[in-house]
Amino acid sequence: MRKMAKFASLALVGAMVFSMPVMAKEVGAPVAVYLESDSDIGDPAETVAAIKEDKLIGEHMNNAVTGIWAMDKVTPIAQGGDIIIDGEKTNVTFILQKPELSRVYSAKDYAKAVGGTVLNVVKIDTHVGFGTANVNFYMPGVVGTENIHVLQFNGDSWTDLNVTEIRADHVVADLTSTGTFAFIVEP
To answer: What is the pTM of this model?
Structure first.
């Protein structure tokens, strides 16, 4: 009887250990293959690269972010080069990637607090060092009369950046480093 009780106790302990919830590291959207209905898959290397970035094929091919988990409506954003770095025109392109979900939630909270709306949140990277980069973001749907703020996440808060121009389909801002950026329209 005692052996049976020990066995039952060990079985219950084992069941509890293996059934405990595990916290997963947040990495963004679930990994899946994303194809637009009109996609020409073409080069398999491009498909693999898009999958690694958790992007649609079109997002990868156009250096864009057109959709984000946890946001129903997103203003697409792309970056095509011709960045002015420290006052000199270059052919550098900044790489746009999808942000961590925690940054999306944080941007939504910030926008709500100021009475605004998040247009998009992106992670920006480059292989080029710079002091100040004047970056032209292509954002189809922007009219040019909106009060759009570009904010950078700095550890625990959002910092407003200098927006130098807002015109039809474009928002131009000065960046001083790479990181996560939110585009928020305020009333």
So the answer is: 0.77
Q: What is the pLDDT of residues 110-125, one digit of tens each?
A: 999 999 999 999 999 9
Name the residue among 131, 122, 142, 135 with its Cα closest to residue 164. Answer: 135
Q: What tens digit of pLDDT does each residue of 19-33 get?
A: 333 333 344 444 444
Domain ranges of the chain: 26-61, 75-187
Tokens of 73: 């409506």
In 53-123, where does DSSP find H-type helix?
Answer: 57-61, 101-114
Report yes or no: 184 and 148 within 8 Å, Cβ to Cβ: yes
The edge-to-edge listing of strands for the beta sheet with 95-97 is: 95-97, 117-125, 179-186, 147-153, 158-160
Q: What is the rounded distance in angstroms from the CA atom of residue 176 to the CA atom of residue 94?
A: 13
Task: State the sign of the Cα–Cα–Cα–Cα dihedral 131, 134, 137, 138.
Answer: negative
pLDDT at residue 48 in the model: 84
